[in-house]
């Protein structure tokens, strides 16, 4: 029973590490539709898209990072593929831009986008042919890369957990210091009020 549970966990993690995403949406005339995603460093990313044809309408596609670097750019795109390797942990953006002349009454266009990350983005068949590997060796290579990807994901999750813990500890320390400072201010203010009122009452000869 325990082995079965471990197997299920491995399958779930493997599916998450595969990183395959697909989406279909409608692009309105003269509008822009963008998708953002945070991706780790040194991750292979591939994408395949298809844009519905519409008379006189054009659609451009751009793939950029948060620094504005263009990783892929194509005007009048109808269908195609792109691939790039991430140089740093960053937010990457895929944008589809519709361009319709003012003399044409535009219609919405159906756009299909499918992206793959990490192991799923690699073409192991081509690698196997280049290295003259047997099918079993290709599958072992794929499993090796998948295992490495899972280890990297766990390492990243552990790093994020440590960062969040450090942030929580730092926040708790600041709250504690602020509370102590506020308490000291209140004690000081209360003491000053007592002394001031005592001096005032003595001046009025209400107390000795």
From TrEMBL:
It comes from the Eukaryota. The keyword Signal applies. It is found in: Membrane. Residues 1-22 form the signal peptide. One of its GO terms (cellular component) is membrane. Keywords: Developmental protein, Membrane, Signal, Transmembrane, Transmembrane helix. InterPro entries: Emp24-like, GOLD_dom. Residues 32-142 form the GOLD domain. It is a single-pass type I membrane protein. Pfam families: EMP24_GP25L. The chain crosses the membrane at residues 175-197. Belongs to the EMP24/GP25L family. This is GOLD domain-containing protein. It comes from Scylla olivacea (Orange mud crab).
């Amino acid at each position: 029973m325990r082995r079965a549970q471990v197997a299920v966990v491995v399958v779930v993690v493997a599916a998450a590490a595969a990183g395959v995403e697909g989406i279909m949406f409608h692009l309105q005339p003269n509008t822009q539709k963008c998708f953002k995603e945070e991706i780790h460093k040194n991750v292979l990313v591939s994408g395949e898209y298809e844009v519905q044809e519409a008379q006189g309408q054009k659609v451009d596609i751009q793939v950029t990072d948060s620094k504005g670097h263009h990783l892929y750019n194509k005007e009048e795109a109808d269908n195609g593929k792109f691939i790039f390797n991430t140089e740093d942990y960053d937010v990457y953006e895929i944008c589809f831009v519709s361009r319709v002349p003012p003399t044409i009454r535009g219609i919405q266009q159906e756009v299909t986008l499918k992206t793959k990350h990490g192991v799923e983005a690699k073409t192991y068949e081509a690698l196997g042919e280049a290295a003259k590997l047997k099918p079993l060796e290709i599958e072992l290579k794929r499993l090796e890369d998948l295992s490495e990807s899972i280890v990297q994901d766990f390492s990243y999750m552990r790093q994020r957990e440590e960062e969040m813990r450090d942030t929580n500890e730092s926040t708790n320390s600041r709250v504690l210091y602020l509370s102590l400072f506020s308490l000291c201010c209140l004690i000081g203010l209360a003491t000053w009020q007592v002394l001031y009122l005592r001096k005032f009452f003595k001046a009025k000869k209400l107390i000795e």
